[in-house]
Amino acid sequence: MMRNSRYLVTGGAGFIGSHIAATLLKQGEAVRIIDDYATGRVNNQNAFETMPGQFEIINGDIRDLETLKQAAQGVEVIFHQAALASVPRSIADPISSLEVNINGTQNVLIAARDSKVRRVVFASSSSVYGNTPTLPKHEEMPTAPMSPYAVHKLTGEHLCSVFTRIYGLETVALRYFNVFGPRQDPKSEYAAVIPRFLTALINKTQPIVFGDGEQTRDFTYVDNVVQANLKAATAPHASGQAMNIGCGERISLNEVLKIAGELLETTIHADYRDARPGDVRDSLADISKAQRLLGFDPTVKFATGLALTLEALRAGTSETK
Ligand code: NAD
């Protein structure tokens, strides 16, 4: 028997989805979650029990439209985070990535349309811009995906805007720029760079850098991304739009290691390997559109976010924050 939930978080056992769900639950909201635990973890949801809001977890696959239709019943807003969220994974296995990232996204939109959901907020990615030399990247620039994953995310955005135009379903696509924070999986074969670096440093092993380490990213602490999602759920002029979500700060991998070394009071000698195919060289967000349309204000800056992430990893509480 389904409870009444105002919010559905797809991928709510994952890194970003679990933070969105936790924030809503802390506010006392009723939240439903759907996840098939492909990359998500039960541990990410442990802290939900202690929060005032009510939650309901559906162990289900977004490739299954019927399951999604049930999950969307009575829901007002869907935060669609579920995906096979990795560039290298999509290169190694483009078929499953496409099935989840494109077909799964269309299923979410169909279920939302049929259940009269008011708005879907879609997790897109800065990877849609590709390797364009212009920085910062802004939404008027042409997109140029360089990996299957980036194609999937761009297609998801197009599906969102088409569903808005044709069916009147409100949608907002948020182009996340390199999100990091507690609960991000450090162990997977496709782990993101910050949890990989921090775990290596804590375990006193050499962090591996693909390339010369001078490539830059707009690393965005997860709380800023949660804020963007919650604002995108209601912002009156955001529907049908795609916009960047970052901090507008450009940090190289070598700088990440330097700041992490300072926090850990150690000198770091990284193991430099060949650059990976499909990786972009530089990335920096122009966030003025999200500031204008959402009132987005990324308050947690990189160094603070890194310290919080390190603290959670060291305390072994990364998974339950
Ligand atoms: P994550 O892997 O931690 O979370 C994704 C979740 O989706 C996992 O819990 C996974 O089990 C679930 N999932 C995968 N396939 C599913 C399926 N078929 N049915 C149901 N659930 C399924 O990754 P994340 O970093 O939290 O990413 C969340 C979203 O943000 C993704 O859509 C990703 O593409 C996007 N994104 C993330 C970043 C980043 O830096 N982390 C950057 C840009 C975009």
UniProtKB/TrEMBL annotation:
Gene3D superfamilies: NAD(P)-binding Rossmann-like Domain, UDP-galactose 4-epimerase, domain 1. CDD domains: UDP_AE_SDR_e. Residues 8-246 form the NAD-dependent epimerase/dehydratase domain. Pfam families: Epimerase (PF01370). It comes from the Bacteria. InterPro entries: Epimerase_deHydtase (IPR001509), Lipid_A_modif_metabolic_enz (IPR050177), NAD(P)-bd_dom_sf (IPR036291). This is GDP-mannose 4,6-dehydratase. It comes from Dictyobacter arantiisoli.
